[in-house]
Amino acid sequence: MPGPVFLEGNRSTLRPIEEADLEFLQAQVNDPRIWRLIGRSRPLNREQEREFFEDVVCGDENVSLLIVDESTPIGTVALNWNDLEAQTAELGYWIAPDHQRQGYGSDAVERVLEYGFDQLGLHRIEARVFELNEPSRRLLESVGFTQEGIHRDVEFIDGEYQDAYWFGLLEDEWRGRDE
After folding, report:
1. I need a labelling partner for 148 at 20 to 30 A (CA). Which of 4, 23, 40, 71 fits?
2. Phi and psi angles of residue 113, each rounded to the nearest 5 degrees, phi first
């Protein structure tokens, strides 16, 4: 799955998602260890994955990147514009189960945050995490996000309603994190 490197991380590289990546994406998003954590409850077939690729990944309202370790795809990370005038976007990411808990998510998120604040001029980046996804909550907190609220019983996953925790990070908080 070739493609030019867009951002270089410490553990991985980030590159644009290409049509050749659709099989990997569909297989991972249909893995219960992924779809549960990202709040999906229905499978995606090839045509639906292609539509997502064409409508979202290829759209102008986000930056969607494949996380790659050498030549192996291991996940995705994206910034989706919420409000261009207010310079806000929502962060989304997932890591394939065989590559979780190895630092790839933190590395990719840090690179995308840096890109969002430095290159896109974003003022605020937010993220949503379901209550059953404790590792993702810890990741967001480790890179400086603050939990701002809870949407109660917002998604039905595995026969139970799940809360969604909303996190936010402002540009000045990102820049001041090492002070």
Report:
1. 40
2. -65, -45
- pTM score above 0.85: yes
pLDDT tens-digit readout, 143-165:
999 999 999 999 998 888 999 99
Residue 49 located in a structural domain: yes
Within a domain: 1: no
Residue 2 lies in a domain: no
Q: Helices 104-118 & 134-142, crossing angle to 10 degrees?
A: 50
Assign 1 a pLDDT band (cuts: 50, 70, 90).
Answer: very low
Where residue 65 sits, what CATH number does that domain have? 3.40.630.30
Report the number of distinct structural domains present in the chain.
1
**H or E stretch including 82?**
strand 72-83
CB 42 within 8 A of CB 36: no
